[in-house]
């Protein structure tokens, strides 16, 4: 039995407030508790990943603290050398006193000398005299540490800027999914678009259905995962991802959505997580884009509006204003209704074929008698 639905445009509904494992922008809503204190040291052992993954505010704080901290620590060492040698203002200097550092007569000037040394500014007002061996060793150590800090902080910032998940921000999914007929089957459809003209090479699309189930032994399984296969008209692997694609999942007996209907769908408790894996053409870095849909974001009996057209100049144009918009279409109330209606049509078609076949062969008339014709009949000659 089919639902006859009016054909008007349906805007994307408001996003539900149900708790998700994966947010619409792909972030995982999960936290870890009761971790042993010793396990926190694993973050320090893997310090590079820790620095790359921390937020920008902490990276900038680390950037400022590492440079200013090293300048100040070495300024204290330069100040100590100058004080030990009697170079500071107010110290009693003997005749013929040889300074270790020229124009370093206090903590402020020691800090300026440390900054100028590590950043290789070299104004010329403050410099080593070369009469103290300790100053030569200290300037070598500070120069090496300064180079290390420069390289490390530049590497962290560059790695953080070029993270593959930044490329994923230019790939977007439709706000809602729809269920309608496609190629003679009831399917769940959603859209994905690449907002850049550079391609994602080797793209693969798949989904996971997350729900709470009960095992045969009575145990409750939270976040039970079921594979969901998505396809496009050209296949499901190595997609030509140059324009928005409509993904579809066929709802058949092997689908976890097989028992759903238009009435029971809003009352379900599950989360459909969709993944798109690919390699960025410009950077050759792998990235993953993901989003999720809850039952309130799946529209039964709707179909997406077309968004691709051709201009007068021969170019293909994508209208993203209709990217998540849908329109009501005639759709079966449930999968069983669709299969029953299809079986009935097949049965009627089979009966019609048999009837047509009988009409072509003719119908036996029982009023006729069957007689035997013998070969020894007389023939009258003329």
Global shape: elongated
Q: Specify the number of helices.
A: 7
Task: Write down how many β-strands occur, each being a DSSP E stretch of 2 or more residues.
Answer: 18
- C-alpha end-to-end distance: 75 Å
The H-and-E topology, N to C, reads as EEHHHEHEHHEEEEEEEEEEEEEEH
Summing up helix and strand content along with how strands pair, one would put the structural category as: alpha+beta
Low-pLDDT sequence parts: 1-9
Radius of gyration: 39 Å
Main pleated sheet: 5 strands, mixed
Overall average pLDDT: 80
Helix content: 25-40%
Strand content: 15-25%
Any overview of this molecule?
It is a single chain. The chain is an alpha+beta fold. Helix content is 30%, strand content 25%. The strands form 6 sheets. Strands 5, 6, 7, 10 and 13 form a 5-stranded mixed beta sheet that branches. Helix 3 packs antiparallel against helix 5. The N terminus is likely disordered.
